[in-house]
Structure formats: C-alpha cells, structure tokens
Write a structure and sequence with these properties.
This protein is mainly beta. It has one domain (about 10-275): Sandwich (Jelly Rolls). About 5% of the residues lie in helices and about 50% in strands. The protein is globular.
C-alpha cells in the first residue's frame, strides 16, 4: 500500500542532515475477509512542518514531521536500501466493529516511489460480530498484487517482520514474518524492481476502493503499538532507524489526528491511536 506524492521542500534539509551526521548512503493465499481490495491510497498532499524535530538525546539526526491521510509511522528517504525489519507486539482491537488496519514493514510508497512498494505485515480486522482477525499479508506494486494469507497471529503475540534483497540479486526480495509466540511463520520470495528508497515501518488505514484514494475503511481502534529493533539495511549494513534523518508520519483525517508516532529513540517508537 502506498502513499501519495509528498512535497519536496524538505528534501534538501534531509540531504544536509544526512551529510552532517555521516549517514549519507553509499550510493496459501485466500480471499480477504472484507470485499473491497486492499490497495494503497493516494492521499492529499501532506503538510510538512518547517522545523526539524530532534530526538531527546540531541545527538541523532532527528526527523521532519509530515502528515498523511492513511499512514502513521516512520519512513527513511536514503537510496540504496536493501532491507528493512522490525518487531512489535500484535495489538488488541476495540471500539466499532467492521473496522480495519494494516501493520507492515516495506520499501517504497512515498513521494516519487508512491507506485513502487514491496511490503509484508499483518491485517487486523474487527469483525461485525466483535471478534478479531489478524491475518498475514504481503504486496508488491506494481503490479497491484496483494495477497491475504490463511496464516493468522493473535493479539499479544510477538511479531518480527522483514523485507530483504536476496544476496547477489537485483530484483528478488525475501519477505518474512514470524510469530515468536505461536511459532507461525511466513516466507515468500517475490520479484520486484525497486528504486530502493524509503524504508517504511507503518500502521495504515487501507483504502476501500481500487482508485488509490479515499474513501478508506473505518479505521480500527488498537492498543499502542511499540516497534523495536527498527532497522534499515543500506550501504552494506544494518542501521537503527534513529541514526538516519527520518520522516515522522502522523495520520490526519478530517483535520483530526487519528494515529500518531511518538519520538524515534534509536530503534524504537510507538504508534498510538487518536480519538
């Protein structure tokens, strides 16, 4: 799932920050539970803050805050990305039934890469009867090819997920998701030609149409999601998200913040659902 084009006025700030900090880059499927397709959304042009926000330590590159109608989390703009990975505890859902969300790691989907995504994650869904479903899914774009598997995880389970370029390959990606609590594992190799820019760790409100825009599914209420071991592989090694100038993405709908990522501290941050 992707996000729409974003303004480029923050780009030169990010390049400068990357240079100053020395982090510049070296170069089983099933039908979905709900009927509409799980595609990503083109959203209105996000607004960007004019002042970068530093992490509490004051030593890391910090981030620029932006808004999106369907993403909440962090994305990193360096090029040459060959992997992204993170861990989280699968959230508990609450509130209005027949609501949906997506939790994922991936590469692409922001700004110039809005039509270029490879990703894997979990699709939490609060059914009409109030029961929950948390199914593993993955997607490549293009083509707009997403797959909702029969594999499920449960609230409270410890999840690890990763997208990595197969060694010595230019377009083969290994997608993996493991539930370390239950032992459920998913792995899939996909072919995808990527610009290798924008490493993402995101909580998303999927759109409910195939036109890559609103309307969106009613967004699930969930317990806070803390991502740990948030890392990106570029320039030949794994680096914590907090060591790179990032974009902090908050989800805004109808002028209200519906999901907000907290500070990025080394390799950890928390996304909380708004009211």
């Amino acid at each position: 799932m992707r996000h729409s084009n974003t303004p480029r006025r923050w780009w030169w700030w990010l390049v400068g920050m990357l240079t100053l900090c020395g982090c510049a880059p070296q170069s089983s499927t099933a039908q979905p539970i709900v009927t509409p397709t799980l595609s990503a959304a083109r959203t209105a042009t996000p607004q960007v803050t004019s002042t970068p926000i530093m992490t509490p330590s004051g030593n890391a590159p910090g981030w620029t805050s932006v808004s999106s109608a369907n993403w909440s989390g962090y994305t990193l703009p360096p090029v040459g990305v060959t992997g992204v990975r993170a861990q989280w505890t699968e959230p508990q859902l609450s509130g209005t039934p027949d609501t949906s969300s997506a939790i994922w790691v991936g590469i692409g989907g922001w700004d110039a890469t809005f039509n270029d995504v490879v990703q894997v994650g979990v699709r939490p869904y609060l059914r009409v009867d109030g029961t929950q479903s948390h199914r593993i899914w993955y997607e490549t774009l293009p083509p707009n090819s997403w797959h909702l598997t029969d594999l499920t995880v449960a609230p409270g389970d410890a999840i690890t997920a990763s997208v990595t370029l197969v060694p010595s390959s230019t377009n083969q990606w290994q997608l993996a998701l493991h539930d370390t609590t239950s032992g459920v594992s998913f792995a899939q190799t996909v072919t995808h030609t990527s610009a290798r820019s924008y490493a993402d760790i995101i909580v998303e409100d999927p759109n409910a149409t195939t036109n890559n825009g609103p309307p969106y599914y009613a967004f699930t209420h969930f317990s806070p999601i803390t991502f740990t071991s948030a890392q990106v592989n570029y320039g030949g090694g794994w680096v914590a998200f907090g060591h790179i100038a990032a974009l902090q993405v908050r989800m805004v709908q109808n002028n209200a913040t519906v999901a907000q990522p907290g500070p990025l501290v080394n390799d950890t941050f928390t996304v909380q659902r708004g009211s």
